[in-house]
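During the reporting period the student researcher (J.K.) took over the structure-prediction task from the postdoctoral fellow and processed the backlog of single-chain submissions. One of the processed entries is reproduced below for the supervisory committee.
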Amino acid sequence: MTRKQRVRAAIQHRETDVAPVGEWIIDYEPASLVLGRPTFLRGKADLAHALWAGRRDEIVESVKHDIVELTQRLDLDMVCVDLCWPKSIEYDPPEQVDEETWRDRHGNVFRYSELTRDLMILEEGEASYEPPRPDRFVDGEFRPDPSQLEVIEHVLAELGETHFVFAGMGDAGLPIYSALWVERDLMRLADDPDGFAAEHLAGYRAHAKRIPFFAKLGFDAVLVGDDYGFNAGPFVSPELFRRVYFPALQHICQVAHDNGVFLICHSCGNLRVILPQMIEAGIDVYQGIQPIEDIAGLKRDFGRDLCLWGGVSNHDLVVARPEEIRRQVVYAIENCAPGSGFILGSSHSITVHTPRQNIVAMLEAAGRHPQPAAPAAAHGS
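J.K. obtained the following structure tokens:
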């Protein structure tokens, strides 16, 4: 059974030789530890500064080779690859305000987080921090700039026949993140749920128009992600979820299936009460399963209709000892692998501060044979 066949069988609830193993995201720090060298892969603040410095070609070379080697060294069945940075775009370097803060010419203010190694939006300016891009659609069909395909073409050539390949379909840009949308969106939901629902559906319709392009390239799946909640439960009631989010999710699932690819849904939060609607909408794989949801309980109650991807707390991957990681792997496989419909992985992603020995413990407990480089990798780029 090839790795691609293994994952496809798990999603379709057919028996597999062993439980598939995969990760959506591996941050640059643990990736560097595995590779034995610095990488721009998921480079966070380092990557942003490199883009501002005009090092786009160097970044692309790092990312395309490091994705392949990392997947092979970790003995993974799946690989996520997306569009990269177009050659035509230049990123204006911002002004440094203090040791942790930068401001661009539009008034956007970025603050560095030592905890996550991200640059976060502190204040929004008068225009986006991303430079404008040319229209990616030609006669209604998605057509990105050829330079955006450099990483995808390399990964498909190296791993496309053997591994399960999926994409988030987003445009690569500055890795700068914001939490300002949470309050804004929740207030909009409260004030005008129907208006919010219409905008959300329009956004998903536009995003779904990219799916035929990725399907023709040979991708096995596409991933969409919206955070629907937090540990206490969803942001909205099941009734409001059906009114606001369900139509958009159902639409993009239908387009994916019409184009012969699976739909992976990433969403943070304790979503048990809305999971039946997510299944009804048509998702094939649920990724981002929080430990509080109890993946064994989800398997018991929803495993006939859904492939679950997770089982190991990404928080514990950072702070726990290897024996605890191995225990979680055994628990997840024993409770979720029977009957198929299960992919082992972290509860979200492998983040910065994750020690090398915990990554190795997780994979070895799953019966894999990781081959990380000698433990002398530098952090950062």
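The committee noted the following: Residues 92-130 form one domain.
J.K. will present the remaining backlog at the next meeting.
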